[in-house]
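Consider the tokenized backbone below.
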């Protein structure tokens, strides 16, 4: 890439004010950024079945695990912006009683957060925890393995139906392809998991629709739509990029929940 394309906008203003020749390069960068949208649309590599290849080890670079809504820093939670794109105000559309319960969860989060009890994180929380996860694909299944506490998802993409009269910590997922996008619908949740450390939660009626779209060699667009009429006044949606780990020999390592480690230490005494 030409050096002129890397000059930040603020630096361009300084160069312009000083009458320095670098401003010409800034103008080139600006015109390049105004190219027609979609002119360089990324085409994902293909798997053996011809579907988009989403395989790799991925991780977020945001603070959604601390709170999906915009939030300040507090004990155990790093400040961050909202990842909610619908509604436009970036707020979860809770029913009044559920909003009160969420606030109570937040006040009691140290003891009440299921993660602090070493329970499975649930979906979609497992996707944006500060731990990497790996995607594997076959023509009939997509599997996702998280470094966090042995969390896994097995997602059939063979047209099979959801299970009935049973619930799971990670829900029951079924996938399908819409072009190069993997669409995953998950139901059959229990009501024990949270969406984040801020106490955002759901009922057992939650239906989650996730979309995984590869947008570059090392990026995925992750979107999730939440439907739970018992909790929310309308469906709502989050969106965030996932980044592929490209470090040499990078792999998932075992993260054992601290409670389990404490219990093992007691047994050795």
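A designed sequence for it:
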């Amino acid at each position: 890439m030409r050096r002129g394309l890397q000059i930040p906008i603020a630096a361009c203003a300084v160069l312009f004010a000083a009458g320095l020749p670098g401003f010409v390069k800034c103008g080139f960068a600006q015109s390049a950024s105004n190219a027609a949208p979609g002119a360089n649309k990324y085409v994902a590599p293909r798997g053996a079945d011809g579907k988009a290849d989403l395989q790799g080890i991925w991780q977020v670079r945001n603070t959604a695990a601390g709170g999906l809504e915009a939030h300040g820093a507090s004990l155990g939670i790093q400040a961050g912006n909202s990842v909610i794109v619908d509604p436009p105000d970036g707020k979860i559309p809770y029913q009044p009683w559920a909003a009160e319960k969420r606030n109570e969860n937040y006040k009691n989060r140290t003891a009440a957060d299921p993660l602090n009890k070493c329970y499975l994180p649930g979906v979609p929380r497992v996707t944006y925890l500060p731990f990497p996860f790996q995607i594997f694909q076959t023509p009939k299944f997509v599997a996702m393995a998280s470094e966090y506490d042995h969390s896994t998802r097995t997602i059939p993409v063979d047209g099979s139906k959801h299970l009935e009269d049973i619930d799971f910590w990670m829900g029951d997922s079924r996938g399908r392809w819409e072009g190069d996008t993997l669409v995953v619908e998950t139901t059959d949740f229990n009501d024990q998991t949270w969406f984040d450390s801020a106490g955002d939660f759901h009922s057992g009626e939650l239906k989650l629709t996730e979309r995984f779209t590869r947008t570059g060699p090392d990026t995925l667009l992750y979107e999730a739509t939440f439907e739970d009429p018992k909790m929310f006044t309308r469906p709502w949606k989050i969106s965030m990029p996932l980044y592929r780990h490209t470090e040499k020999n990078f792999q998932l390592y075992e993260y054992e929940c601290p409670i389990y480690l404490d219990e093992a230490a007691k047994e050795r005494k």
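DSSP finds six helices and ten strands in the chain.
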